[in-house]
Amino acid sequence: MSKDPQASVDILNLARSMELVAIAQYMQHHYALDNLMYPAFAKAVKRIAIDEMRHAEMLSERIRELGGVPITAPSQAPDTAEDPMVAYAADADLESDTVFKYNEYIEALSAIDHVSAQLLKKIIVEEEGHSQYFQDVIGHITNLGPHYLAVQAGAKFEKTDYEEFIVGKNN
């Protein structure tokens, strides 16, 4: 039970609006990555978007339990980048901001609504996993460049191709 149901609803709706941005952005990036022939990237981003859909639904259920109406508008326009590095950087930034804000929301809710605070604590664990995934891919693209992107697009490389790329051997 919330000591201040309306305050809880307001905070949960802020979180929900952030989830709606993530859904739209990740699905947009999924379509772009799929069009660019990066099936593994596209599939991973789509799975994360589905996680965000589940988060939005969980928040909606709690908002309704408190007598509120779930918000339907995203908090900002989604990024629509098509370049993998730019898209993943935008996604990493979005997850980082979400984790930061959710920590603030958890702190505020802890004083008035233990159930809602616990819900956000559950969601934030997944958000941190998403953030780590995006950061890992950015690191791979940065460190391995076109070779990594080519492999993600399905290119096959022989050991000698890899050695030439990484070690600088010329045969």
Short recap of the structure:
The protein has helices spanning 5-35, 39-65, 84-110, 114-152, 159-166. With 171 residues, it is mainly alpha-helical.
Structure description:
The relative contact order is 0.16. The chain contains 5 helices and no strands. The mean pLDDT is 92. Helix 3 packs antiparallel against helix 4. It has 171 residues and is mainly α.
Task: Extract low-pLDDT stretches.
Answer: none
Can you write the helix and strand succession as a string? HHHHH
Radius of gyration over all CA atoms, rounded: 19 Å
Considering DSSP H and I runs of 4 or more, what fraction of the residues is helical? over 70%
Task: Report how far the terminal alpha carbons are from each other.
Answer: 71 Å
Number of helices: 5
Shape label: elongated
Average of pLDDT: 92
Topology summary:
Blueprint lengths: L4 H31 L3 H27 L18 H27 L3 H39 L6 H8 L5
Key descriptive features of the protein:
single chain, 171 residues, mainly alpha, 5 helices, 77% helix
